[in-house]
Design brief:
Blueprint: E1 2-3, E2 11-15, E3 22-26, H1 69-83, E4 95-99, E5 102-105, E6 110-113, H2 116-119, H3 128-138, H4 151-162, E7 169-173, H5 176-194, E8 209-213, H6 222-226, H7 231-234, E9 244-247, H8 252-258, E10 264-269, E11 272-273, E12 279-280, H9 283-296, E13 299-303, E14 327-330, E15 341-345, H10 347-350, H11 366-379, H12 384-403, E16 409-415, E17 418-423, H13 428-436, E18 439-440, E19 442-444, E20 449-452, H14 460-477
Parallel strand pairs: 6-18, 8-9, 8-10, 10-13, 13-14
Antiparallel strand pairs: 1-2, 2-3, 4-5, 5-6, 7-15, 11-12, 14-15, 16-17, 17-20, 19-20
Helix pairs in contact: 3-11, 4-11, 12-14, 13-14
Length: about 475
């Protein structure tokens, strides 16, 4: 089978005689040179030798034979403005390909990707084992809906439950926002059942309020949006879901005023706030929330959509604090760039959910779940998380050395490879100039934090390059 798209290399999927094996090859019909591994996917369960995460030393990357990069870029941007709803501000760059932690635009310019698709590409772009998993599954079964059993979804759920000490069941979604929406529903039904109320009695009332925190971000759909802090996200779409109560992050006294027995069904909190500015919770704060929830009979829900699955140097961010939730949502890094989310729940919560209480057409499909299996396997290999911790320390130390003496830099903070540089001015110009210099970093907080969330496979050498680029740019911008 040959897959051809305009302006792209042809990909030929070649089936072998062995079930579960396939290879992807870049067609020789193209005149340009593009690095494309011939990846042979192993039979599931078979041990394979670990390929390198870095491009070959002699690899040649080009701009995919774009004859007029400027015209190509202009055309893509103009057509996007014409046909795509404009809800994002994008730079005038069109990326054409990526590998490891590097991306290339239509002009052939190379960038170090320290944004990872907003903390998504945790094992880098087109990791060999991820690519093999996607290729393997795509060749046999991609989607059936949740009306039928499939192997990949069960395998992934089993892996996650076995690696998450508090959880007994997993529920799959297509994104972190959807995972939080599901968790809201689970919490509200759990409260009704626990109160002894018929959950299907529309006239009955039960605890339904959900506590959230300043600088929080849980998504942009109506329930998750109600729990998200920024009013500018909510006001144009008011009224959002009722019942959300706001408390101050890191302030137990503030939380105690709104967590009430008979009223509160759940508390949603990020152990480390990403969008909010790379703010790490104190252990005492999370333990205090655990105690307040237990006293009120409310569920404690950890949103680890951005900070989970190895990003902080531990598999789950809550492991740094020794406080276990009743539910946890995750998403961004789980499938290596394919859309997925999940809610991890205890048996007590699982038991109140019945057939038909929630669902999704696409969630948990075999293709995405098999890709996620590969990601989980990579991240949980011996020594991987320890290396994330080490590289995170190196990155923070490098940033302190490169930027710490600048009077506009107030703090370098984070855990593992989720790092923020707090400025006393807006961070957009610094991020823009860094991009011009070949480094992708993004903002967070109130737009005054430089957020660095590189692929977890980033090398020491690329960490040094990142710090040097930011040091050079800061001398120009932060004056």
């Amino acid at each position: 089978m040959v897959v051809a798209l305009p302006g792209r290399p042809q990909l030929r999927v070649v089936r072998t005689q062995h079930v579960g094996q396939s290879v992807v090859r870049c067609s020789a019909q193209r005149k340009h040179q593009v690095t494309a591994r011939a990846v042979e996917a192993p039979v599931r369960g078979q041990e394979v030798e670990e390929p390198t995460d870095q491009p070959a030393a002699n690899a040649v990357r080009t701009n995919l034979d774009v004859k007029d990069p400027a015209a190509f870029t202009k055309d893509i941007i103009e057509r996007e403005k014409k046909y795509v709803l404009q809800t994002y501000v994008r730079p005038d760059i069109v990326f054409t390909h990526a590998e490891g932690i590097r991306m290339w635009d239509a002009h052939g310019k190379e960038y170090l990707d320290f944004a990872a698709g907003i903390a998504v590409n945790s094992v880098g772009h087109s990791h060999p084992r991820w690519l093999a998993a996607v290729n393997d599954q795509a060749a046999v079964l991609t989607h059936t809906s949740n009306l039928f059993h499939t192997e990949a979804g069960v395998n992934l759920a089993e892996k996650l439950v076995n690696k998450c000490s508090f959880a007994d069941k997993a529920f799959f979604t297509n994104s972190g926002t959807e995972a939080n929406e599901a968790a809201i529903k689970f919490a509200r039904k759990y409260a009704r059942v626990k109160a002894g109320i018929d959950p299907y009695d529309a006239s009955a009332t039960a605890p339904s309020e959900i506590v959230c925190f300043s600088a929080s971000f849980h998504g942009r759909t109506m329930g998750a949006l109600a729990l998200t802090y920024k009013e500018q996200y909510k006001t144009p779409f008011a009224p959002v879901m009722p019942g959300a109560k706001l408390a101050t992050y890191q302030d137990l006294d503030s939380a105690a005023k709104v967590i009430k027995k008979g009223e509160t069904c759940a508390v949603f909190v990020e152990p480390l706030q990403g969008e909010g500015g790379i703010n790490t919770a104190h252990s005492e704060f999370l333990q205090g929330l655990r105690d307040l929830c237990d006293e009120a009979g409310a569920l404690l829900v950890f949103d680890e959509v951005q900070c989970g699955l190895g990003r902080t140097g531990k598999l789950w961010a809550w492991e740094h604090f020794g406080v276990q939730p009743d539910m946890m949502t995750l998403a961004k890094p789980l499938a290596g760039g394919l859309p997925i989310g999940a809610v991890m729940v205890t048996q007590a919560i699982a038991e109140v959910m019945n057939v038909g209480d929630h669902g999704s057409t696409f969630a948990g499909n075999p293709l995405v779940c098999h890709a996620a299996e590969a990601v989980v396997d990579i991240i949980t290999e011996e020594g991987f998380l320890e290396d994330v911790t080490r590289k995170g320390e190196k990155l923070r130390a490098g940033l302190e050395k490169a930027l710490g003496s600048n009077p506009h830099v107030k703090q370098v903070r984070g855990l593992g490879l989720i790092v923020g540089v707090q400025l006393d001015v807006g961070a957009s110009e610094l991020c823009s100039k860094a991009r011009d210099a070949g480094l992708i970093v993004i903002t967070a907080g109130k737009g005054d934090v430089v957020r660095l969330v590189p692929p977890l496979v980033v090398s020491d050498e690329d960490i040094d390059k990142c710090c040097q680029i930011l040091a050079n740019v800061a001398k120009e911008v932060l004056v």
